[in-house]
Amino acid sequence: MSALRFFGISAIGLLITMAAVDQFSLLYREISRSCSFYIEALAIVGAWYTVRKCVSLAFDTYSALRLHVIPKLSGEIDLVKKYGKWAVVTGSTDGIGKAYAEELAKHGVNIILVSRNKEKLEAVSRSISETYQVETDFIVADFSKGRELYPAIKEALKDKEIGILVNNVGIFYAYTDYFTNLSEETLWDLIHVNIASATMMTHIVLPGMVKKKKGAIVNLSSAVCCQPTPMLTVYGASKSYLDYFSRALHYEYASKGIFVQSLMPFVTTTKMVAFSSTVSKRSIFFPTAEEYASHAVSTLGLSIRTTGYWKHAIQLTLGWLAISIANSSRELTVPSEMEYRTQLPHPE
Ligand SMILES: NC(=O)c1ccc[n+]([C@@H]2O[C@H](COP(=O)([O-])OP(=O)(O)OC[C@H]3O[C@@H](n4cnc5c(N)ncnc54)[C@H](OP(=O)(O)O)[C@@H]3O)[C@@H](O)[C@H]2O)c1
Questions:
Q1: 235 part of the active site
Q2: Hey, whose CA ends up nearest to atom 36 of ligand 1?
Q3: How far is the CA of 189 from the centre of ligand 1 (A)?
Q4: Catalytic pick from 100, 132, 150, 235?
Q5: Residues 177 and 346: beta-carbon distance below 8 Å
Q6: What is one GO cellular-component annotation here (predicted)?
Q7: Which residue has a Cα nearest atom 22 of ligand 1?
Q8: What does the pLDDT look like over 61-71, one tens digit per residue?
Q9: What's this model's pTM, rounded to 2 decimal places?
Q10: Residue 167: inside a domain
Q11: DSSP state, residue 273
């Protein structure tokens, strides 16, 4: 009954309106004129959004080419002239540190290796000097020992013209675990090796660089620095420390001729990831340390914050996309504990 009344009233309303505007075509024109105003306004908003997206895409593409492609195609940069004769690389008897040291030596830079194992240091040092015809030296230092180490390192470096410092040394978890399950010893090791070493090595080397008004400091952070990492809490937090440390230091010292880079690799097939049979094998996604270092060195002086490798840059972009999609469907902004447990072996 009420529906009939509604239709009746609507019909009468329409008839009155039609009478008021004389004919239906006039009414239609009036309505479409006001609609077209809204459509045009929406079209302007859409066009503005599209232009902004296109400009930012063009900038991103240009930055990616400038960082990852152009340096590889153009001639090599003279790192000795740009930064100085010597480079110090920590944790340089294996993995990324060793590969980075070799890559710098390829550019004619003399290398000082700092690591914990004397035999390995001798072997790597000899191999680099014979292969690349550069001078090499090494310092035996176990960074997990903490504060007591640094006076001796400072003394050993005092007469060297250090142009590049690579704070590479880092340790990972043996397996994922709750923070309170980690021993005090493990916690101190993580703090001393991952955080204190980069801080103290920079404190030793930076004054000399500032005096010469040139130098570069590369801190090996990690792609995990961008997100909280439950079950790897201290490792992830230590990498965030290095990222923030690098960025702030760059702003403090750029005007004094110092370039500081936060290098944030994704998985690279070194012994650090040997726990996993999937990620420890070289593949299209996971480069070897040598492949990674060759790209990372070519970004030196170009980007203060980079994954260092175009494949890792793609993975980071896809990672962010996945995270933003996941965030739109749930409140938690970090992967669940379960997801982390599947990535690393756990004793339970
Ligand atoms: N591999 C990855 O997927 C990945 C991803 C992101 C970030 N990173 C970061 O990249 C850096 C290098 O990683 P990596 O995979 O090359 O590691 P790695 O293969 O385990 O090599 C680590 C190097 O550090 C040395 N080292 C370890 N503990 C030390 C200590 N207490 N004192 C002195 N030297 C010590 C090792 O010496 P020995 O030869 O004696 O063992 C080795 O030369 C780390 O900071 C890591 O967090 C790695």
A1: yes
A2: 91
A3: 13
A4: 235
A5: yes
A6: mitochondrion
A7: 91
A8: 887 887 787 77
A9: 0.84
A10: yes
A11: G
